[in-house]
Structure formats: structure tokens, C-alpha cells
Amino acid sequence: MAKFTYLKSRVAVISKRNIDTDQIIPARFLKVTDKSGLGEALFSDWRYNSDGSAKPDFVLNQQQNQNARILFAGDNFGCGSSREHAPWALTAWGIYAVISTSFADIFRNNALKNALLPIVVNTDIHHSLFELFTQSPESEVSIDLASQTLTIPTGTNVTFPIDSFAKKCLLTGVDQLGYILSHEALIESYEAA
């Protein structure tokens, strides 16, 4: 898993509420057991016409958002069924953080285990960010995970919550299994005793 320490990027905006995991990655793409190719399937039903051509008005198809590494979404992002493929698809496309007012619990947990940072902001901040990104779509924000701050173009720092163990794993670039394996010598010593 890649380390997540600091990120500065433009923001792609999908302001819809209740974006579920089947919209993020439709069920027909769940036959794989690895991440390869999932970036192309991200928001597939929204990104592509029935003939496979790209819908030019969808945010991730627009040229100015091709290098966006942060997604701004409406309330209750990632609701629906549990599927690790949703954060896999987001990170495979190049999204490394999602900003919303809330996340479905299962999605948040899957995201944190797969190097995708879910950032929760209150509704006032969310509204002001939406206004900013609508008026100035070229705006960039920065995320400092160590200090748990989101810095917006006005210079305002917004703090966000994150589970301390998940934060440690993201900062060091290890998943839960990698963390356990980093203590292999202690485990072997305990088993020997």
C-alpha cells in the first residue's frame, strides 16, 4: 500500500447525495480479484454511453479534471453493498481522497484499508467548498494527514477526524496485515514462550 502523507490537487465535483457502491463500480465489474482495469470502470454507467463512448459532460471525462486526485461528493458517499472494488476503482483512476459530509461505515472502512482517505467536513464547510469549486473549478486544496488538516485556497485550515490506527497505517504505507507482520519477531517470541 502506498504511503499517504500529503496531497495537493484540483478537485473533481460530483455533488450528488447517496452515491452508492453500485454507482461507483457497477456489479458487472466485480468478477475480478485485483485492481487492474477498475479505473476505467469507475462510475461506468455515468461516464459512458451505451455504445461505449465517453459522455463529455461527466466530470471525470472533462479535460480539466483528468489530474484531479480529490473527489468532492454529496452526503452519504459509498452507501449500499460492501465491496472493496469501490475504493479500488477510485484509487485505480487516481483519486486518493474523497471529501463529503458523511460516508457509509463499510465504505469508509474499506477505503481506509485501501489507501483512500475519506474526509468528513461539516455541512457549512461542505457548502462553502461547493460554492468555491463551482465558482473557481481550478482551485486546489491540500491535505496533510499527519496534522489532519484540509487547507482550502483561502488559507483556511479545516481539521478532519480519522481513526488513529488507520492514520498510522496510511502514513507508513502498510495495511492491517502488514502492520501485524511488522511485529513478527515479537509474535514469534511470544509463541516461543
What general form does the structure show? globular
State the total count of DSSP E strands: 7
Strand order of the largest sheet: 4-3-2-1-5-6-7
Largest sheet: 7 strands, mixed
Structure described in brief:
By secondary structure, this protein is an alpha/beta fold. The chain has nine helices and seven strands. A seven-stranded mixed beta sheet has the order 4-3-2-1-5-6-7.
Characterise this structure.
With 193 residues, the chain is α/β, with parallel strands linked by helices. The protein has one domain: Aconitase, domain 4 (Alpha-Beta Barrel). The chain contains 9 helices and 7 strands; from the N terminus they run βαααβαβαβαβββααα. The protein has a 7-stranded mixed beta sheet. The two termini are 32 Å apart.
Topology:
Elements: E1 6-14, H1 21-24, H2 38-41, H3 44-47, E2 70-73, H4 85-93, E3 97-100, H5 105-112, E4 117-120, H6 123-135, E5 140-144, E6 149-151, E7 157-159, H7 164-172, H8 176-181, H9 184-192
Parallel strand pairs: 1-2, 2-3, 3-4
Antiparallel strand pairs: 1-5, 5-6, 6-7
Q: What are its keywords?
A:
alpha/beta, 7-stranded mixed beta sheet, 9 helices, globular
